[in-house]
C-alpha cells in the first residue's frame, strides 16, 4: 500500500501562504519530501531544543466546534451519533469542506494525502496476515464500525433534505468516508474549546505534517494567544527533518490508528488480557487481595519492551494469581501487601516459579497463534 501524493506538491506553496496570511508562525520550516516518509517538516535554519517551531491559530484549525455553524449544523441538532461522536462529526465536516466550493480550508485539504495506510485500506488477504497479532481484533472492529457508520450515513443522506445531505448525497462513497475517517484518525489532536470548559477533536494544519519519533510531548495550547504551539523536542540543524512525539503508544496502536509501526518505539509492548476465573475455588480471596492493590480481577496488562518487561502491576497480578490458600491468607492479613508490586518482595520460591511458568506458557501460546515465525516475516519484508 502506497500513499498517493497526486498533485499535493504543487499546492504546498499556496497552503503555506494561506497559513501565514491567517496568522500562523512557520518561519524557518517548510514542507518537504523525505525518503520513506513521503512528506514531513524540514528545518531551514538551526533550532535549539525548546525553540518555537510552529504556532497555529485557532482560526485555521478544523475542530468539532466548527460543526455547529457549518452545513452539517442542522443535522447535528437531530442526529444522536453526530452529537455523541465528535470524531465522526469532524470526519463528515471534512468531507463537506472538501466539496464546498468556497471552503475556507480548501488550501489545507489540497495538501492532505489522497490515501492512507490505515487498516481501513487493507484487503481481506492483508487482514488475514494479522492472524495471531494483537492488532487483528481492533483492526476488524474498526473496519466493522466504519462500514456500519458508512451504511448509516449513506441511508441518511439519501432520505434527508438538509444542506449536508444535499451536498454529499451524490458523492458520498465508502472509499471517501474511509479517507475522511483516516485523515481525522491519523492527524487529530485535542485543543480546548473556546470557553475552555472541554477538549475538542481538532485538525491542526502544518503541525499535522510532522512525523513521529521517540521523545516527549512538545505541543501545547497557548490560551492567551489562542493558538497551538509546538517547540523543538531536540536540537535541529538546517536541512534536517523535524519530528514530534505522538504519545506513548505501542506499535500495535500506531499500526491500527496511524497506519505505521516504529521499530525503535520505546513504548512498544504487548497487551495481555488476564483475569481470575469464576471457577477458581480461591476467586474471592484473589479478588479481595487484588482489590487491596487497586488491580482489577479482569483487565489488560502490558508486557513491556526492554530489560524489565514486567511492571509492578502485572507482577502483583501474577503473584496473586499463583498463590495457594496459605499465601493468600498471609497477604490478606498483612500490612505490607503493597510490597507485592516490587521485584524484591520476599515471596516463596514455589509461588514465583509457578508465576513465571504461567507467564512463559501464555507467551508461547500467543507466539504459536501466528501463522509465520519472526524470521519468515522479516525475510518477507525484505
UniProtKB/TrEMBL annotation:
Sorted UniProt keywords: Actin-binding, Cytoplasm, Methyltransferase, S-adenosyl-L-methionine, Transferase
Principal location: cytoplasm
Pfam families: Rubis-subs-bind (PF09273), SET (PF00856)
EC number: 2.1.1.85
GO cellular component: cytoplasm
Known catalytic reactions: L-histidyl-[protein] + S-adenosyl-L-methionine = N(tele)-methyl-L-histidyl-[protein] + S-adenosyl-L-homocysteine + H(+)
Highest taxon in the source lineage: Eukaryota
Record has Nucleotide-binding as a keyword: no
UniProt xrefs under Gene3D superfamilies: Rubisco LSMT, substrate-binding domain, set domain protein methyltransferase, domain 1
Subcellular location, record wording: Cytoplasm
CDD domains cross-referenced by the UniProt entry: SET_SETD3 (cd19176)
Coiled coil (UniProt feature): none
GO terms of biological process kind: methylation
Domain SET: 27-247
MF GO annotations: actin binding; protein-L-histidine N-tele-methyltransferase activity; protein-lysine N-methyltransferase activity
Claim: Amino-acid biosynthesis is one of the keywords in the record: no
Family named by the database record: Belongs to the class V-like SAM-binding methyltransferase superfamily. SETD3 actin-histidine methyltransferase family.
Annotated protein name in UniProt: protein-histidine N-methyltransferase
Classification of source organism: Eukaryota, Metazoa, Ecdysozoa, Arthropoda, Hexapoda
